[in-house]
Here is the input.
Amino acid sequence: MKKAPFYAINTPMTHEILLYYKYTPVNRPHLFVDWHKELCKNLNLKGRILIAAEGINGTVEGSSENNAEYIKALISQDGKGGTDKYGNTLNSDGTYSYGNFSDVVFKKSVGDGKAFPKMKVKLREEIVASKLGEEVNPAEYTATHLPAEELHKWFREGKKFKIIDMRNDYEFIVGHFKDSINPEMENFRDLPKVLPKIEDMKDEPVVTVCTGGVRCEKASAYIKKKGFKEVYQLDGGMATYMEKFPGKDFVGSLYVFDNRVVMNYDDKVKEGKEGQLHEVIGKCMKCGTASERYINCANDFCHLHFICCENCVNDDGKSYCGRNCVERNLVRVKGE
Here is the structure.
């Protein structure tokens, strides 16, 4: 009753990447994890899916046909089939229901089959680690969703508003909306700590933005509860806006959490869609050269994620974020 449907579609197809999430109560999350593992194995999907009692947050890559089957399987989890004699919620097709995912929105982008090394499906306390507490539940309370088309209109009309970027600082530096506010968070859990940096905007219209929208569901709800009077969140996140309006109002590339590291929609412009080719705004932390190449500091006790151009990488392919890390690593090596 609780097994995932079996699909076996192995015809070579163009790869695509799906980005999606939904905040909704999940029945027996640990079993939903098992359901996903079996389904994704059958469909030869790779990626990362986080499941919690509060919902699902996933990025998966597969052939376009296999992805279509995954979407079909997930949205068939609708919880609209009543209950069985044991009180279990059922889907419309009579199978066991883990929740209502019938209206999940999937954002698609071109893949190459190499975005992820394998499939990971994890059970978590939250689908985005925020540590904001139970007071923030997007399924019950969040800010108004602002469609990409409406934000585009606001830009064109010169409407007065502020964009607050709710991503990590290292994501912001490689690409962001023009004139957006960077609270300089090291990770999303820092939101309460950086709140004083944006409190002077409480009386202004503000739009929270992030990659695909999942972080803004909580971030926008949190700042509303902290007294911000007119809060919106960009529906579908930056990925949706950039796809619909490539090269407009957004400078640089979009940081993503897979092997691509950064992405843009230059291909759509080259195919004839109205827009502009992206400009590289990221800068190598060591020499200042324009770059979008990320690396982790070679010091095992640091591992800072930073932009480092090819000219500043050592012959062994490694680099250090600064002189202190070089010296500390030398001391550690000598002590071994």
Remarks:
- The two ends are 55 Å apart (CA to CA).
- The chain has a mean pLDDT of 92.
